[in-house]
Amino acid sequence: MVNTYYTKPIEKTERIPKLVAHLFAKMPEIEAARAELITESYRETEGQPIMMRRAKAFEHILKNIPIIIRPGELIVGSTTIAPRGCQTYPEFSYKWMEAEFDTVEHRAADPFYISDETKKRLKEADKYWKGKTTSELAYSYMAPETHRAMEHNFFTPGNYFYNGVGHITVQYDKVLAIGFEGIKKEAAKELAGCQFGDEDYATKSVFLEAVMLSCDAVIGYAGRYARLAAEMAEQERDAKRKKELLTIAEICAKVPERGAESFQEACQSFWFVQQLLQLESSGHSISPGRFDQYMYPYYEKDLNAGKLTREYAQELLDCIWVKLNDLNKCRDEASAEGFAGYSLFQNLIVGGQTVDGKDATNDLSFMCITASKHVFLPQPSLSIRVWNRSPQELLLHAADLTRTGIGLPAYYNDEVIIPALINRGLTLEDARDYNIIGCVEPQKAGKTEGWHDAAFFNMCRPLEMVFSNGYDNGEPASIQTGNVEDFKTFDEFYDAYKKQMNYNISLLVNADNAIDVAHRVLCPLPFESCMADDCIKRGKSLQEGGAVYNFTGPQGFGIANVADSLYTVKKLVYEEKKITIGELKKALEMNFGQGFDAITAREIALRVAKTLEAQGQEVTPDIIEITIRSVLTMQLPAEEKARYEEILAMIDELPKFGNDIDEVDELARDAAYTYTRPLETFKNPRGGIFQAGLYPVSANVPLGAQTGATPDGRLAHMPVADGVSPSSGKDTNGPTAACNSVARLDHGIASNGTLFNMKIHPTAMSGQKGLENFVSLVRGYFDQKGMHMQFNVVDRETLLDAQRHPEKYSGLVVRVAGYSALFTTLSKSLQDDIIRRTEQAAYRA
Amino acid sequence: MNDYLNVSGRIFDIQRYSIHDGVGIRTIVFLKGCALRCKWCCNPESQEYEIQTMMVNGKPKTIGRDVTVAEVMDVVSRDMPYYGRSGGGLTLSGGESLLQPEFAAALLQAAKSIGINTAIESMGFAEFSTIQKILPYLDTYLMDIKHMNAAKHKEYTGKENIKMLENAKKIAESNQCELIIRVPVIPGFNDTEEEITAIAAYAESLPRVEQIHLLPYHKYGEGKYEGLGRPYPLKDIPMLPEGRMEKLKAAVERRTVLYCQIGG
Q: With the CA atoms of B143, B147, B150 and B154 taken in that order, what torsion angle do they form, in degrees rounded to the nearest 10?
């Protein structure tokens, strides 16, 4: 079979770096327009059905929000006047933002500029929202035990608690084909078929009216851009730019109202949908999905008709890539740490198979990868679907992007994901048509309300509860599973862990379902819903269960720590009896004798304070302060300290997850089931089930800071292992061994996605042979039923850090001379040599 | 269990995910013991058959362990999916694997029996009857030819080259495996165009030999000599001048029709 697609990379135009430079000239800024407009509208519509209030507010915003066409843009539509700025969404939450007004500009993760004027305007608008937000309603729906579990950091549902849901791919293809004019017709037809006597007439008719109003709002918004472009064209002196603006004016007058005909129309229509979904709801991970598939017909038609050159098509793609970085979102400080990098996780995926099981690769699959190389920015989150018949050229093209060090694309395995989705009730055709949402979550576009990022669940916290019998800093935080000292066998210990997991998982479900209901009651989204089946037919929004497929997907993380911890307990305590469980408990409390950080000192001081209070003594802030100081400077008796260090050394000697050692890996597989299996028995309010993911985005760092020492030798408050990856620095047998261990987990049951991070040195990917072997590594992992893989191709600075902190990098592979080796096993002088060599590599690049 | 799985031998390392030595992703098993004492050797811990202690980053490390073929294959077979995808497989290295011929043959046989591609890095320093034992299980023979001059060869490696050159010819004529000639390019020993092209000419004269690999000298083994408490014989020699390897490659390409590459 001869492949017919065009694979030659196309050069980028001068326009692209200019657009990028303009976008990044200033720190992103918070704007107040949307908050003011939605508040104005809500004040006007008190007492009306919430669905209609949402549509009217959307219309009011789109009619009045300031618009701009940035210099040189071919694809237009900006949510803020300032580049990369953000609007605010007080209907979900606002208190955190007011509290952070004065720090948001200077915080470490994702700072935003905010003017005094904006602060004032937002404060004024926010007054209206007290007691009316989804977060407040969700909180009141939750059980008190759930509040307690959240306070004790077992899980954090912060994402949808504070924000819109997002996490969806809509029917871009449908908008491209029939426009919002067509969707309005569908809604009108459905409405015409409704009988006054139908039991759902009231809600269905209002929903359909709201859909039509939302479509009109979008059409009106595009019209504003058409007029702006025409006005600017009139003023423009440069003939070339004038022509471009006139084209933009013409296109915006046509799409997305009507179906797109040309490729450029399709690009602009796509963009309005992508931009306005975010303006409706503030959700992140609104993902373009299979862009190379639904855009292809327009590209092919124009190309064949001689109306489009590949070069211009590439430039339009590049422009969209830049625009995807123009959208932004300000999160609360804690969430910003968990999602660091201003990321909106707009996942765009190429390759894979068609609904009838053929390879889906086309010209655009290659050009999308090229666009990421041209624009070289984090958005879109580019992904690639890999299956047994993926063309090698496409994977090599992707690998060539990977080795630039940008961390893109992420690789996904059709051979695991398709059966996993079928197991969740998708048809074979729908499963074959999956794309990825946000980080790693598979869904069938335009049919799914997946709630893919419903919470992060820290699997290490229940383990702590086994040791403390459900107490946290002296107060009850979970169920009591018995004194750990009384457990005579490993099975008793493991059973207690499972009980702690089950209990806290049920609270996680309680939290998610409460938030789910709050979104349904206060923030249904008629615009988003009109682009997903079967909302129009059922007359229900996505938030009310209008989608064909409904899921809730909270993520568990820390598997490597739990697996290694269970192995420690099994081996050292119950099999070899080198330490008692009581001794291990003490060692954990004392952080293995490695001293206490400020967090632990504070916790201990508060525990002491509680005991004193219970005894009827008065506790002043002074007493707490003194206790903290004495904890920080406390010296353990030498003998005790030595024993803890001995225990730590014994733990260190044990085999760890990530080294292709069957016994440990099997325990990890089983440990993952303690999260994935109970979760799938629960239902959500939209008529769907829960499905587990295994990944933490970047939350493993902040949530690790809330976790005490664990029996795998991890010290208190250090990061927890990320995703399904081995604990940092514990995989010492090279990449294939790490892959084999990770593949031994059951990825199929974690149908909300798993995330495997791997570090690779650029020299290990050099030359054509380097690319080929890299592709073989990915394929070999996928042959063993791994689900996802992404790569950090590390540079000189990382190598320098690896020299200073070898314990963090023991899995780092570098090319030495005629062979590759683990960096940290090399002599200092040889390491220096490689570091110098990397500089050269960077210089050549 | 098949008998060959019980054969035991002595190795000093197994390196997985080796991607710059032969085709694809490979696992290299390093057999302990060597007949030569090349002054530039970058694996001096491979030379003695006896189990040794070497200081690595300030800590003593035991070099060498006795293992069965089954034990080695347990590690090697774990990467089969990657061999399959990349065309890689098992490579025996050393030392000189032929000094443990039964073990080497059993390892290669075990690999072939489960469909793993096989290669050996060797100087061919053995009776040809010994080499014949491994050839049925071998896909690629990566043979070192260091110099055409017997006296100079002896001076730098401790042995003459006559038997090895003969073996190269016999291996090529056997038509049982692919034969690739490799030359470590050592400053002051063989880094002139005359010396390298002489080796290339000999390689070209062997039936079905199509490739020659020139491996640039490096000093990465120096620290190991220290760890073993031995002086590094080439302490004061200069590195190869910039561009020398490219020049030698060009010379080989002018003089022969062989495919020539720098590095493994």
A: -80
